Input
Amino acid sequence: MDEFKRQVQDLDVSMGIGETSRVTGATATQIRYWEKKGIVHPIRHGEGQNKRYSYRDIVTISFVKSMIDQGYTLAKAEQDAATHFTFAEALQMIVKERVHLVAQTAHTLTLNFGPLDNDPGYDVVAEVGDQVTLKRVPHQAN
Output
């Protein structure tokens, strides 16, 4: 499970503009325009290689396209996307930095977030099933 956790944390998903257009429904022209506006930031993995759009860019493009399709302006879509990603990045940071152990049974996912900063003798554990339960349990060494 530790290897899987590391692989998920380090996952680098990216697509070219054609595939990004197909997946998001935005035209290549729209994507290039949004790039010029600084809404998305494609990367190149090497000199002379095509631009690649990260998972974050793909989600941003989908979000902006959806907002525009609903009648919002590009400025409003960009603003809402930035707010949305501030929240998403915080969740991603929690998962990357604090999830120490993941266990799953038939009906429950258990996430151990490691020791409490102000009481390292105890861990924070979330059990997710029909409901979410947070518990303070004695520290479990990994």
Observations:
- Strands lie at 14-15, 53-54, 101-104, 109-116, 119-128, 132-138.
- The CA atoms of residues 26 and 65 lie 6 Å apart.
- The mean pLDDT is 86.
- The helical segments are 2-9, 17-24, 28-36, 55-69, 74-98.
